[in-house]
Structure formats: structure tokens, C-alpha cells
Amino acid sequence: MERRNFIIKSAGAGALALVGGKVLGSTFNETEVKPKTVYFHYLLFWLKPELTTAEVKEFENFFEGLKKLPYVKNFRYGKPANSTPRAVVDNSFTYNASMDFDSLEDLEAYGQLKEHLALVAKYKPYFTKMMVHDTVYDK
Q: What does the angle CA 21 – CA 24 – CA 26 come to, to the nearest 5 degrees?
């Protein structure tokens, strides 16, 4: 009789472990962190050489306006670093800016915002060249 009770208890414990493992396993799968896709928008500007120091400083208001627009995340801007010259380094630009977007749709919507287009029109006379790089990352 003891052996029979032992077998029944062992079988019950094994079944519980099996079911419990599946429950825990499915709970774990539901909470797994999935990679987040980020759309990275990188801008380079070459300002006109004849601009005064005050006009160059005024151009920074372009960036201050952009970072207030909807959809924009993690906005940063700056000038070239004074890194050691190397064949692969291009520090010929005057300013760069970068920002993240949660989706391609957000990036595209940002590009069509009337406030965005107005800022570009206002500050376009300040630069001779602008280059844009859009990149998608999985974080």
C-alpha cells in the first residue's frame, strides 16, 4: 500500500511539474522583451561662408524649433569634433543634427508637418548644402 501511495504521489508531482513548467514557460514567453525598431534621422548642414557669427548663432534656432515638433525623440545637434584628421573623417560640415522616430510613419509625417516645412523654408537661405541619412535600427 505504501508503494502504491508513493507511486501515486510521484506521478502527481511529476504531472504538476510538467504543467507548472508549461505555465511558467508560457508566462516567460509573454514577457520576453522584443527588439524595438527605431528610425534614425541624421542631418548635415554646410552653412554659407559669408554668414556673420550672429547669423551662424541664429541658425541654431532652426534646431531649437525642430526639436519641439511632434514625433521627434532624442534630438541632438552640434558642430564637428576636433578629432584627428584621417582619410575617413569628413569634418567639412558646419552643423549636424540627429533624432529618433518610433516608426517610419512618424518619420514621414514629421517631414510633412507645416511647422517643419516652415522652419526649412526660413533657414534654407543660411546653408549651401544639406544631406540627410535615414537609418532603421533594431534596439
A: 105
